[in-house]
């Protein structure tokens, strides 16, 4: 049984029971997400300060962004949030194959998101719009860039889950890592839910 | 210990459908010029979407006080840094 | 290291070799690694401090060039703050004693704990690597200078980002540990006050550090891509950097002081043989300090050109921090009142903490008040103030903790006589060095300037001589540590007759901390009713 990572490393579990270990892991990821809120929070604050300072610049520049691609990426991320939720629901019912299917779908959608992002960015570069062009584009590249890094990190984490799922490490009674990774992935979706209107919809 | 939390596939699909509808709505509204109300509706819709994700996909609906605290306290501190910074930049 | 003597167990120190330390999941060993690392930077930063004082013995250009002086005070400040004071007590003593004081086997995520130590080390290496072109910005990295200086700020920022990440992960680990791993029967109101202090500290680490993380990331991006958020030429706002920097760096002052206050709350009742006075007031004042600490960052920016509205709000809010702080001081003194006080070295450092921190705290009131701050801002008054809070406060708290828990950590006793000499020299040297700086600052001597008018020289000589006495005290103290590590008398399980859980296990503790899981039935400060456990 691999109830906790520490146990498998020859360090007896520090938790009184698997239930406590699960609770601890959940609190841990929520505390981690709290740090993420404030990491992005610095950028959101910057956005608010400069949006109030330069409304004309924001209005002029947001027209350069492609609303349709942004909306498409929103749908892609929301769908990936759904698939990861379904992955957890599956393994809770002990469905190994569905778990692997939904994890693969999630990773695929995350990849699609990054590919679309890549085309958006290269299109901006082609038009001579870079970080440093002006405050709006600096914000755009910083915020979507940091978010993109989180997507890439998510792909790594979900990939690790898929690998472990392939080795049959998860079951009806033990699926904490999948759930924890899922919570992280939903958070990445949450950030995008705000980034999308802030950059693509309101100018 | 894992029973009774989260929801069935059906709930997730319903939430997904709601998120799609809201995304469509927010994009549609953005093509109409409502001045200040564009910002307000866009942020309102985003917040509804975020709440749906947090409550259902992230199972916050089924969590106790402790996890709710962990989820809300950072938002409070985010408001704090925004308010404190604006108390300077807006009045300078 | 403690050697087996008369069949005494070496406890958690039994395993030997590099791997047994580098890959350990034991919170005690990780805590010890943090202590070694941070104390190393305490000594290194101290050497830079001594060099600064030597330069300041003479007005005008003397001994080092002015640029060397800029580098010296920057290195002194940055190393002391980022590599010693911030991680010192939380990651060092915190790692070692949180599980022991709550009766747990380890922290909640032992592997994450090890990872955060190595992230810390990686951060240090990146920072040291960036010093090929020495930094000269001061520890605050204010823009626009930091965006333009020739120093390698982008790499340095990344190093500090890593150190911050380590701090976040440690705080997260401790929060979950306190929530989920308390021994059966240990309710929140039976927790030792050190745990309350560390819990409040961890909240700050988790909520404030990410903001400085993103700030340093933006500073690096400013240098790499010229993103312009802090650059007025591009419409950016240099004050935004200061807002973000102080949103972290003010609360982090309480990351430095809250754990020290926690240590003092443990030491005072033990050496007064009295139950702590006002337990709940001390416990909740820790949380209050953590929270109010987030509301006052703007008081660092009164003369930076911040709006008057913001200055007035922040000045007003600043005074509220004094309330929970005073509550603590009052309760410590009330605990000692009519106690059977003994003056062993931990108690001497604890009393030093209280007296010096009162001076540091009260002079803080001068600075929180908008009008007086404008007069003394960026003078030696500030330098004296924060050395009284950080060195007089945090470092004395750390030293109290080191002397108090030394027998538990190493299984050996320190020489009490040497410890008292070390304390005496440190106490005299510290006050000689920094007390005169209040006066110098009040007379208008600016901080960070390499030169000063000749009329200030006498007091500067006093201050520099004081720094030598201080260094002598610290040398005596560290020689005692090194001797104690190898040749100290074997320590009993409970040398000070304490009631907290760590004294119920052997010195040094076994790897699993407790033979059987302790069951808690009472708070740990019932010195009248209960007899202490252990041999002693």
Overview of this protein structure:
Mean pLDDT of chain A is 93; it is low at 1-10. The longest helix of chain A has 36 residues, at 18-53. By secondary structure, chain A is mostly helical. Chain A has seven helices and no strands. In chain A, α4 runs antiparallel to α7 (176-201) and α5 (96-126) runs antiparallel to α6. With 92 residues, chain B is mainly α. Chain B is flat and about 55 Å long. Chain C is an all-alpha fold and 536 residues long. In chain C, 66% of the residues lie in helices and 0% in strands. Chain C has 16 helices and no strands. Chain C is globular, with a radius of gyration of 23 Å. Chains in contact: A-B, A-C, B-C. At the A-B interface, α2, α4 and α7 of A face α1, α2 and α3 of B.
The DSSP helix count of chain B reads 3
* Unreliable segments of 5+ consecutive residues of chain A: 1-10
Structural class of chain A: mainly alpha
Q: What portion of the residues of chain A fall into strands of 2 or more residues?
A: under 5%
Distance between the termini of chain A: 54 Å
Radius of gyration of chain A: 20 Å
Topology:
The complex is a heterotrimer of chains A (203), B (92) and C (536).
Chain A: H1 5-8, H2 18-53, H3 55-62, H4 67-92, H5 96-126, H6 135-166, H7 176-201
Helix pairs in contact in A: 2-6, 2-7, 4-5, 4-7, 5-6, 6-7
Chain B: H1 9-30, H2 36-57, H3 65-89
Chain C: H1 18-22, H2 27-55, H3 66-102, H4 110-130, H5 145-148, H6 153-180, H7 193-225, H8 238-249, H9 251-272, H10 279-292, H11 308-336, H12 345-368, H13 370-376, H14 380-410, H15 416-442, H16 457-487
Quick overview of this protein structure:
The complex is a heterotrimer of chains A (203), B (92) and C (536). By secondary structure, chain A is an all-alpha fold.
Features:
heterotrimer, B: 92 residues, mainly alpha, 3 helices, 75% helix, 0% strand, flat, C: 536 residues, 16 helices
